[in-house]
Write a structure and sequence with these properties.
Number of domains of chain B: 1
Oligomer: heterodimer
Number of helices of chain B: 0
Shape of chain B: globular
Shape of chain A: globular
Number of helices of chain A: 0
Structural class of chain A: mainly beta
CATH class of chain A: Mainly Beta
CATH superfamily of chain A: EutN/Ccml
CATH architecture of chain B: Beta Barrel
Distance between the termini of chain B: 16 Å
Helix content of chain B: under 10%
CATH class of chain B: Mainly Beta
CATH architecture of chain A: Beta Barrel
Structural class of chain B: mainly beta
Order of helices and strands of chain B: EEEEEE
Protein backbone atom coordinates (compact mmCIF):
# COMPACT_ATOMS: atom_id res chain seq x y z
CA UNK A 1 0.00 0.00 0.00
CA UNK A 2 1.12 3.52 -0.59
CA UNK A 3 0.63 6.79 1.20
CA UNK A 4 -0.88 9.47 -1.00
CA UNK A 5 -2.32 12.95 -0.85
CA UNK A 6 -5.58 13.88 -2.48
CA UNK A 7 -5.06 16.38 -5.27
CA UNK A 8 -8.47 16.62 -6.88
CA UNK A 9 -11.60 14.98 -8.17
CA UNK A 10 -12.73 13.35 -11.37
CA UNK A 11 -16.29 13.58 -12.67
CA UNK A 12 -17.43 10.90 -15.07
CA UNK A 13 -21.04 10.55 -16.17
CA UNK A 14 -20.51 7.75 -18.68
CA UNK A 15 -18.90 4.83 -16.92
CA UNK A 16 -19.21 1.16 -16.14
CA UNK A 17 -22.46 0.76 -14.24
CA UNK A 18 -20.68 -0.94 -11.37
CA UNK A 19 -18.88 2.36 -10.80
CA UNK A 20 -22.12 4.28 -10.38
CA UNK A 21 -22.12 6.16 -7.08
CA UNK A 22 -18.40 5.70 -6.56
CA UNK A 23 -16.30 8.80 -5.93
CA UNK A 24 -13.18 9.12 -8.07
CA UNK A 25 -10.25 11.10 -6.70
CA UNK A 26 -6.85 12.05 -8.09
CA UNK A 27 -4.11 11.17 -5.61
CA UNK A 28 -0.36 11.71 -5.67
CA UNK A 29 1.93 9.21 -3.94
CA UNK A 30 3.99 10.86 -1.18
CA UNK A 31 6.97 9.82 0.92
CA UNK A 32 6.66 8.83 4.58
CA UNK A 33 7.99 12.27 5.55
CA UNK A 34 5.09 13.88 3.69
CA UNK A 35 7.09 15.19 0.72
CA UNK A 36 5.59 14.83 -2.75
CA UNK A 37 6.69 12.38 -5.39
CA UNK A 38 5.77 12.61 -9.03
CA UNK A 39 2.86 11.12 -10.88
CA UNK A 40 -0.71 10.50 -9.91
CA UNK A 41 -3.33 7.78 -9.65
CA UNK A 42 -7.09 7.91 -10.05
CA UNK A 43 -8.53 5.96 -7.13
CA UNK A 44 -12.01 5.06 -5.93
CA UNK A 45 -12.77 6.43 -2.48
CA UNK A 46 -14.29 4.03 0.08
CA UNK A 47 -13.86 6.11 3.23
CA UNK A 48 -15.10 9.63 2.48
CA UNK A 49 -11.68 11.25 2.22
CA UNK A 50 -11.35 14.96 1.53
CA UNK A 51 -9.13 17.34 -0.40
CA UNK A 52 -5.48 17.42 0.71
CA UNK A 53 -5.86 14.56 3.23
CA UNK A 54 -3.21 11.87 3.51
CA UNK A 55 -4.71 8.52 2.62
CA UNK A 56 -3.81 4.86 2.21
CA UNK A 57 -4.16 3.55 -1.32
CA UNK A 58 -4.25 -0.13 -2.18
CA UNK A 59 -3.46 -1.02 -5.78
CA UNK A 60 -3.95 -3.98 -8.07
CA UNK A 61 -6.59 -6.67 -7.81
CA UNK A 62 -6.55 -6.34 -4.01
CA UNK A 63 -8.40 -3.04 -4.43
CA UNK A 64 -11.52 -5.04 -5.33
CA UNK A 65 -11.44 -6.72 -1.94
CA UNK A 66 -12.35 -3.51 -0.13
CA UNK A 67 -15.86 -3.49 1.25
CA UNK A 68 -18.18 -1.96 -1.34
CA UNK A 69 -15.95 -2.76 -4.30
CA UNK A 70 -16.74 -6.42 -4.88
CA UNK A 71 -16.63 -7.12 -8.64
CA UNK A 72 -16.13 -3.43 -9.38
CA UNK A 73 -13.57 -2.77 -12.14
CA UNK A 74 -10.97 -0.85 -10.13
CA UNK A 75 -7.24 -1.23 -9.56
CA UNK A 76 -6.74 1.52 -6.99
CA UNK A 77 -8.83 2.20 -3.92
CA UNK A 78 -8.56 4.60 -1.01
CA UNK A 79 -9.01 2.44 2.08
CA UNK A 80 -7.95 4.70 4.95
CA UNK A 81 -7.46 8.27 6.09
CA UNK A 82 -4.09 8.58 7.79
CA UNK A 83 -3.89 10.26 11.20
CA UNK A 84 -0.17 9.85 11.81
CA UNK A 85 2.89 8.22 10.27
CA UNK A 86 5.53 7.57 12.91
CA UNK A 87 8.99 6.67 11.62
CA UNK A 88 11.60 6.99 14.41
CA UNK A 89 14.90 8.39 13.14
CA UNK B 1 8.52 -12.08 -1.29
CA UNK B 2 11.20 -9.69 -0.15
CA UNK B 3 13.07 -8.86 3.02
CA UNK B 4 12.28 -5.63 4.76
CA UNK B 5 12.89 -3.73 7.96
CA UNK B 6 9.94 -2.38 9.92
CA UNK B 7 10.76 1.30 10.33
CA UNK B 8 7.56 2.83 11.62
CA UNK B 9 3.85 2.72 12.22
CA UNK B 10 0.80 4.23 10.58
CA UNK B 11 -2.37 5.21 12.40
CA UNK B 12 -5.59 5.52 10.41
CA UNK B 13 -8.79 5.83 12.42
CA UNK B 14 -11.07 6.20 9.43
CA UNK B 15 -10.61 3.19 7.20
CA UNK B 16 -12.45 0.72 5.09
CA UNK B 17 -14.41 -1.61 7.37
CA UNK B 18 -12.54 -4.60 6.04
CA UNK B 19 -9.30 -3.18 7.52
CA UNK B 20 -10.65 -2.56 11.01
CA UNK B 21 -8.37 -4.14 13.63
CA UNK B 22 -5.40 -4.53 11.29
CA UNK B 23 -1.98 -3.16 12.19
CA UNK B 24 -0.33 -0.94 9.59
CA UNK B 25 3.47 -0.70 9.54
CA UNK B 26 5.98 1.20 7.43
CA UNK B 27 8.49 -1.18 5.86
CA UNK B 28 11.73 -0.50 4.04
CA UNK B 29 12.62 -3.17 1.50
CA UNK B 30 16.16 -4.53 1.73
CA UNK B 31 18.51 -6.28 -0.67
CA UNK B 32 20.29 -9.55 0.14
CA UNK B 33 22.97 -7.61 2.01
CA UNK B 34 20.23 -6.01 4.12
CA UNK B 35 20.76 -2.58 2.59
CA UNK B 36 17.73 -0.42 1.82
CA UNK B 37 16.41 -0.41 -1.74
CA UNK B 38 13.61 1.76 -3.05
CA UNK B 39 11.14 3.75 -1.05
CA UNK B 40 9.35 2.64 2.10
CA UNK B 41 5.80 1.38 1.77
CA UNK B 42 2.93 0.57 4.08
CA UNK B 43 2.17 -3.05 4.90
CA UNK B 44 -0.52 -4.83 6.87
CA UNK B 45 0.90 -7.02 9.63
CA UNK B 46 -0.21 -10.65 9.94
CA UNK B 47 2.44 -11.96 12.36
CA UNK B 48 2.80 -9.41 15.16
CA UNK B 49 5.97 -7.67 13.95
CA UNK B 50 7.35 -4.57 15.63
CA UNK B 51 9.48 -1.57 14.73
CA UNK B 52 13.12 -2.52 14.07
CA UNK B 53 12.43 -6.16 13.23
CA UNK B 54 13.61 -7.89 10.07
CA UNK B 55 10.63 -9.34 8.25
CA UNK B 56 9.59 -10.62 4.87
CA UNK B 57 6.53 -9.51 3.02
CA UNK B 58 4.59 -10.42 -0.07
CA UNK B 59 2.77 -8.19 -2.48
CA UNK B 60 -0.07 -8.52 -4.90
CA UNK B 61 -3.35 -10.29 -4.34
CA UNK B 62 -1.57 -13.03 -2.40
CA UNK B 63 -1.01 -10.44 0.31
CA UNK B 64 -4.62 -10.92 1.36
CA UNK B 65 -4.26 -14.71 1.80
CA UNK B 66 -3.14 -14.63 5.47
CA UNK B 67 -6.49 -13.09 6.32
CA UNK B 68 -10.02 -13.91 5.34
CA UNK B 69 -8.81 -13.70 1.80
CA UNK B 70 -11.83 -12.33 -0.02
CA UNK B 71 -12.30 -9.58 2.52
CA UNK B 72 -9.00 -7.87 3.23
CA UNK B 73 -7.88 -5.21 0.76
CA UNK B 74 -4.11 -5.30 1.03
CA UNK B 75 -1.40 -5.50 -1.64
CA UNK B 76 1.48 -5.65 0.84
CA UNK B 77 1.48 -7.89 3.93
CA UNK B 78 4.17 -8.90 6.41
CA UNK B 79 4.03 -12.68 6.49
CA UNK B 80 7.04 -13.62 8.59
CA UNK B 81 9.65 -12.39 11.06
CA UNK B 82 13.29 -13.34 10.42
CA UNK B 83 14.90 -14.69 13.60
CA UNK B 84 17.85 -12.29 13.35
CA UNK B 85 19.99 -10.50 10.79
CA UNK B 86 22.53 -13.33 11.13
CA UNK B 87 19.90 -15.78 9.91
CA UNK B 88 20.07 -14.29 6.41
CA UNK B 89 22.94 -15.91 4.54
CA UNK B 90 23.74 -15.98 0.87
Amino acid sequence: MIIARILGTVVSSQKDERLLGKKLLIVRPINVDGSDTTGYVVAVDTVGAGFHERVLVVAGSSARLAQGLKDVPVDAAIVGVIDTVDVPA
Amino acid sequence: MQLARVIGTVVATVKNESLVGRTLLVVQTLNKDLEPIGKPSVAVDSVGAGVGELVFWCRGKEASFPFKREDTPTDCTIIGIVDSDAHVTC
